[in-house]
Amino acid sequence: VYEAHKNKSSDDKYMQNGGLYLVVLHQEHGTVMQAARYRTFEGDADKELIAALKTLQKDRIIILAAMNEAFSALSQQARMYLKQQGSRVAEELHFGARWAWVWSKGATTWAEGFMFSLNNRVTHRVEMAGNLYLTANVPKKEGSRCSSWPSSSSWAQRHQFCDKYEGYGDLCSCHNPVSISRPQTL
């Protein structure tokens, strides 16, 4: 990040790369199913992040990482949601902190790391936290996700889609999938 933006002012660099990054991996084969960045220091991005997390299917491997001002305007509601999901430190972080968390939806935290930023009393500026390196070993979770779905070709297509992409909520729900009907032609 530094190399790409070293000629810009520090404010531009931080604003361009800041926020919470979300990556969702398939629990069986580890492929990326969804990737997004939420500029949680602007508007309602934290509400969008929580809505996105709520739509994820059980057992998905979720990686959240914070850059720069990700926590500067993160609502208490969002912090509490992250805590309820298993984060041990999201509630305590503030502007300039680095944070990464690897967890499975509805299950286990595999790794969580953080570095706090420092308030410089002489310059009255926040010194951003340094680089954060985090390693997580997540075991593969095998087995058919939605064995209760019918075996028709349209359900097979849905299963194929839902096994590749994440973030579609009830469309891919194993227990209560939304009904899809094709339009009738006249």
Automatic annotation (TrEMBL):
InterPro entries: ILEI/PANDER_dom, O-linked_mannose_GnT. It comes from Meganyctiphanes norvegica. One of its GO terms (molecular function) is beta-1,3-galactosyl-O-glycosyl-glycoprotein beta-1,3-N-acetylglucosaminyltransferase activity. One of its GO terms (cellular component) is Golgi membrane. It comes from the Eukaryota. Residues 19-107 form the ILEI/PANDER domain. This is ILEI/PANDER domain-containing protein. GO terms for biological process: protein O-linked glycosylation via N-acetyl-galactosamine.
